[in-house]
Amino acid sequence: xxxxxxxxxxxxxxxxxxxxxxxxxxxxxxxxxxxxxxxxxxxxxxxxxxxxxxxxxxxxxxxxxxxxxxxxxxxxxxxxxxxxxxxxxxxxxxxxxxxxxxxxxxxxxxxxxxxxxxxxxxxxxxxxxxxxxxxxxxxxxxxxxxxxxxxxxxxxxxxxxxxxxxxxxxxxxxxxxxxxxxxxxxxxxxxxxxxxxxxxxxxxxxxxxxxxxxxxxxxxxxxxxxxxxxxxxxxxxxxxxxxxxxxxxxxxxxxxxxxxxxx
Length: 263
Description:
There is one protein chain. By secondary structure, the protein is of the alpha/beta class. It has one domain (about 5-190): 2-enoyl-CoA Hydratase, Chain A, domain 1 (Alpha-Beta Complex). It has 9 helices and 11 strands. The chain has helices at about 35-50, 80-100, 115-120, 150-155, 160-165, 175-180, 190-205, 205-240, 245-255, and strands spanning about 5, 10-15, 20-25, 55-60, 65, 105-110, 110-115, 125-130, 135, 170, 185. It has a 7-stranded mixed sheet with strand order 1-2-3-4-6-8-11, with helices on both faces. It has a 4-stranded mixed sheet with strand order 5-7-9-10. Strand 3, helix 1 and strand 4 form a beta-alpha-beta unit. About 40% of the residues are buried.
């Protein structure tokens, strides 16, 4: 790539109208910290405001994970007001992805769980390696499962969406494509080439109708998710103050099955 810039845990590379943003914590499955949320948000803002940028590709470093989700283990105990602010800031990334003027492509190179699953869903196109997995495992560790339930219901139908969210089941790339969450499944060595091929195809089209179409479709998505996003902040704030959340974190650290009490 012609240009490289670091946004903390996010690496930004740009060439020929394409910006590649890489979540760069491979040793932690590219799990996303509050700092990484800020870095990714700023990188997206800069790329979206750059007239030379036409397409934004998001991927993860290494070959194990696109993004393993929000790094809940490193979040300290917070008073309610600071907890609510944390969840509000994290949610802003989802709103930002919906509001992007530039086309976004998720190149999913491994597991995409929790926040990583949400990022892949909110990008305009998603390509994935055959070994990729997708899911919302939050309830299994005592956390509220994201803010995209209405989108999952629309994509999958209520029954399948509830199955994935209530059981915390992960699905493979082939099933994700069959369910309409992934555009293409590819071998590892073809993933990035295909992402750039798609980017080139879109760059070669007329920019005005592309921008208008994306804006119209995402305005409908914003309406679909508006209530759920507001609810998510309050639900997650309550969850983070619960005994079950503390038990979930303890079990995760101790690598055991949690024992929840519903409080």
